[in-house]
Amino acid sequence: MVLDTKFGMRSPDRDNQSGQARLTVIGSKAVGKTALTVRYLTKRFIGEYQSDTDMIYRATMPVDGSKIALEILDLSSNLDEVVVPRETVAWAEAWLVVYSITSWESFRVGVRAVEAVTAACGADQPNPPVLIMANKKDLEHIRQVNESIDGLLRQVSQLKGQTSPRLRKLSVSKMFNQLMNLSSGGGGHQDHRPVMPRVSLRDRTRKRGHIRQS
Ligand SMILES: Nc1nc2c(ncn2[C@@H]2O[C@H](COP(=O)(O)OP(=O)(O)OP(=O)(O)O)[C@@H](O)[C@H]2O)c(=O)[nH]1
């Protein structure tokens, strides 16, 4: 594995062959982008990293019986918001968006990052593969982001417990809105901003994004 502290950008066409891949890792500050990258490449968890520099990692990784020459750009983040540099959009062939299960805000930032990446790619370009990955799953006791179906059903039960008989006749869409507000604020904080990218159903089918827990 080679570590570059300099962010050496190359033209998008160079080395653009099968057997090679360029991946950019983004997410809000301290969600564990570097930890996750190093864990993937070395299968080891290292606690502390230099966090204030963009890094490129180079390694050959086995994928489906073939070897992929992989370059991973780990974009450091000084802000809670993710900035998607124009030159990175031209460079990256795939994106890994990381958030921490201990921070609802980092999940929001991740969702906005997916929107920013797809917007930056332009309407005339096919959307690159994007994977949203949850990190810090060992910190279950301070989890803020709960996306399991069980969690969703628990919220339905809570909601029904809170409602009067008259309110139980709410329409499905009102019920859904209430759920989204509940899940976005952990119950107390009300925030009416949407939590998922606003794309039409048709657009959704074209996107190749996945949500995965590490
Ligand atoms: N408990 C726990 N801590 C983690 C995990 N991943 C990373 N950390 C810790 O979270 C802190 C931030 O990790 P980094 O990998 O530096 O996070 P980053 O997103 O690269 O940070 P920036 O580049 O500064 O935005 C470090 O103290 C890590 O040890 C994890 O899965 N579990």
Helix content: 25-40%
Shape, per Cα inertia axes: globular
Q: How do the strands of the widest beta sheet line up side by side?
A: 1-3-4-2-5-6-7
Biggest beta-sheet profile: 7 strands, mixed
Uncertain segments of ≥5 residues (pLDDT<50)? Answer: 1-17, 182-209
CA radius of gyration is 19 Å
Percent strand equals: 15-25%
List how many beta strands DSSP finds. Answer: 7
Order of helices and strands: EEHEEHEHEHHHE
Q: Mean pLDDT score, rounded?
A: 74
Helical stretch count? 6
Distance between the termini: 22 Å
Q: Helix/strand-derived class?
A: alpha/beta
Which hetero ligands occur in this complex? guanosine-5'-triphosphate
How are the elements arranged and paired?
Elements: E1 2-4, E2 20-26, H1 33-42, E3 55-63, E4 66-74, H2 86-91, E5 94-100, H3 104-121, E6 130-135, H4 149-162, H5 172-185, H6 201-206, E7 210-213
Parallel strand pairs: 2-4, 2-5, 5-6, 6-7
Antiparallel strand pairs: 1-3, 3-4
The structure holds guanosine-5'-triphosphate (GTP).
Residues 27, 29-35, 47-49, 51, 76-77, 135-136, 138-139 line the site of guanosine-5'-triphosphate (GTP).
